[in-house]
Write a structure and sequence with these properties.
By secondary structure, the protein is of the alpha+beta class. It has one domain: Aminopeptidase, CATH 3.40.630.30. About 30% of the residues lie in helices and about 30% in strands. The protein is built from four helices and eight strands. Strands 1-2-3-4-5-6-8-7 form an eight-stranded mixed beta sheet, sandwiched between helices. The radius of gyration is 15 Å and the shape is globular. The two termini are about 25 Å apart. It comes from Streptomyces liangshanensis.
Length: about 170
C-alpha cells in the first residue's frame, strides 16, 4: 500500500509492526515522531487496527494511517477506517492530531484526502462522530464535506454519501 500525499502531509498506511509500536508508544530507530506523538487517540486507533488484523486480517487499504508532515517527515497524528467496508460499501472513520499540530488545517486536509481515496475505491458512505463539545472536530468534518445527520446524548454523527459506482 502506497502513501497518500497532500500538499503538506503524507498519510502513511501503518503496517502491523508500526501499529504495534504506536499502540505501545515505543518508537524504534526508524520512526520519526513529533513530541507528543502518539497521543491516547493514536494508541486507541492502532489497537483497533491490530484487533481487526487479528480477527479478520489486514483491512488495508481500509486500515490505519499515520499523519506525517511533508516538511520534516514527523508523525503528528493518525486517521483511518474502523475496518473494511460493509455490504453497502460504507465505512466509519476517525482521526486525531497531537496538540502542537492542531489549528493548522492538517486534520481537514488529511480527512479530505482520505474521503477522496475512499470514494475512488467505490465507497458509497463514510460516517464519523465526535463528542458534543468537540467543536473543532465538527468543523473538520464539515470542511471535508461531511454533514451532521443526527446526535444523541453523547455524540454528533456526520456522514458523506456518494452515488454507487457501477
Amino acid at each position: 500500500m502506497e502513501d497518500l500525499v497532500t500538499e503538506r502531509l503524507v498519510l502513511h498506511p501503518l503496517s502491523v509492526m508500526e501499529a504495534e509500536r504506536v499502540a505501545a508508544g515505543e518508537p524504534d530507530g526508524e520512526d520519526r515522531w513529533a513530541p507528543g506523538y502518539p497521543a491516547d487517540g493514536d494508541m486507541v486507533g492502532a489497537r483497533r487496527f491490530l484487533t481487526t488484523c487479528a480477527i479478520t486480517g489486514d483491512p488495508q487499504p481500509f486500515g490505519a494511517y499515520e499523519i506525517r508532515r511533508r516538511e520534516d517527515g514527523r508523525a503528528v497524528g493518525g486517521l483511518g477506517f474502523h475496518g473494511a467496508p460493509d455490504e453497502d460499501r460504507a465505512v466509519t472513520i476517525g482521526y486525531g492530531l497531537i496538540p502542537s499540530a492542531q489549528g493548522r488545517g492538517y486534520a481537514s486536509e488529511a480527512l479530505r484526502e482520505l474521503l477522496r481515496f475512499a470514494r475512488s475505491r467505490g465507497i458509497t458512505r463514510v460516517d464519523g462522530d465526535a463528542d458534543h463539545d468537540n467543536v473543532a472536530s465538527h468543523r473538520v468534518m464539515g470542511a471535508a464535506g461531511m454533514r451532521l445527520v443526527s446526535e444523541d446524548a453523547e455524540l454528533r454523527y456526520f456522514r458523506i454519501t456518494w452515488p454507487e459506482v457501477s
